[in-house]
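Supplementary Note 2. Why include the ligand at all?

Several targets in our set were suspected to adopt different conformations when bound, so apo predictions alone were not considered sufficient. For every target with a known small-molecule partner we therefore ran a joint prediction. The input for magnesium ion is given below.
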Amino acid sequence: MLSHTFADALPQFATPWRVEAWPDPDIKLLNPDFQLADGTLLHILSRPGHAQAYAGHQFGQFVPMLGDGRAVLLGAMNTPEGLKEVHVKGAGPTPFSRGGDGKAQLGPVLREYFISEFMHAIGVPTTRGLAVITTGEKIARQQVQPGAALVRGADSHLRVGTFQLAATRGREHVLAALRYSAGVLGLEAETEEALAEQFLRRVMHSQATLVAKWMRMGFVHGVMNTDNCSITGETLDYGPCAFLDDFDGDAVFSSIDHQGRYRYRNQPQMAAWNMVRLAECFVGIVDVDTLNGLVQEFPALYRRAWVEVMAPAIGLQPSPEVETLLDDLLEILQEHKPDYYGLIRGLRVDPMRSSNWQEPWLRSWRAMEPDLELMREHFPNWFPRNHIVEEVIQAGLADDWGFVHQQLAYARDPFNAPVASPPKDPAPYVTYCGT
Ligand code: AMP
Ligand code: MG
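The joint prediction is reproduced in token form.
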């Protein structure tokens, strides 16, 4: 049922390992899209797997060995959602734990499951939650919570950090990772150099699209380290992420992001920076001028992707005029800091409304004859506002799964769910990595 595709192809990046035996495992959520029975899931968890090795830049600092410090890759499995690598986060200590306990708490596990269901529902590429399991332990971080594990599915867990580790070991390792990744992405080329170029283009393209979609939703990932930057362009690791309520380009939610490196508006530049780190791994395989030329294309790729996803959110087709209109929108958003979702969704709900500061912009927008139906399809009615995510987590911690399921139903159908109101208490929202 599970094939060790990754570990068989790249044994140098995989240490055989197993999910630890938990005192009292209890499946709290099982994702209906994957049609896994309880028994099958528990059986899978008992199978031998691997902890993956990878490196990464964390907040700009290179760490030569990170790896799965609290996760085990069980293998790849055919699911109704396609071939997925099954990964268990909160699987217990591994050879890569670096002094950490290898555990996860229920709160952060629920957050990842809940938000990633929403991301999937609105067409943002993401890893998926297959199941949330409590382990029967108590885990202390900022507070004591039930121990939990997230069973996660992804097209692949290859990340920029995988290539960075390969590069520290030498050219043959980079080529091995490249050949394996090319298989995952369905790329083919006559020479290794051409394959590497194609690969870089593909990753840049998928990252540009991914970050553009995050920006449209006001999503702040919070920890865009290279070890969390996926080769397949999936949103990977939902630790300290949050959504904008009031618009602010400088919004930072993570308690550890003191410099605001991963603030909302920096995300495209951070993705570009990560792409340079990826390209660096190919020095000696691809000519340096070619690599430089490639990574310099990222801002334009991002810009195009951003206009493509933003234009329909305001009911328009991408064009140079719409691009200017979108830039103007960003400017007034930054100046007046309104509730971001309220404003974008409000355009559809009440296109003829008037507002002093919005009026000149609204006039230009209406003159372009926006398509309200297009807006309905491209910007959801409901989204998991930070206070809703917190309520869901609190409900889970209080064992009130009825509320969790009700909110999950909205997350899975956000275009038809009732509108999510802004928070009553506008206190600053702070998130924690959950480690
Ligand atoms: P993250 O920020 O969650 O992507 O984690 C960064 C690195 O820290 C990865 O190598 C994780 O495996 C590791 N890590 C995070 N939390 C823990 C933990 N509780 N125990 C051991 N390793 C951890
Ligand atoms: Mg990570």
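The two ends are 31 Å apart (CA to CA). Residues 227-228, 237 surround magnesium ion (ligand 2) (CB under 6 Å). Comparable summaries for the other entries are listed in the accompanying table.
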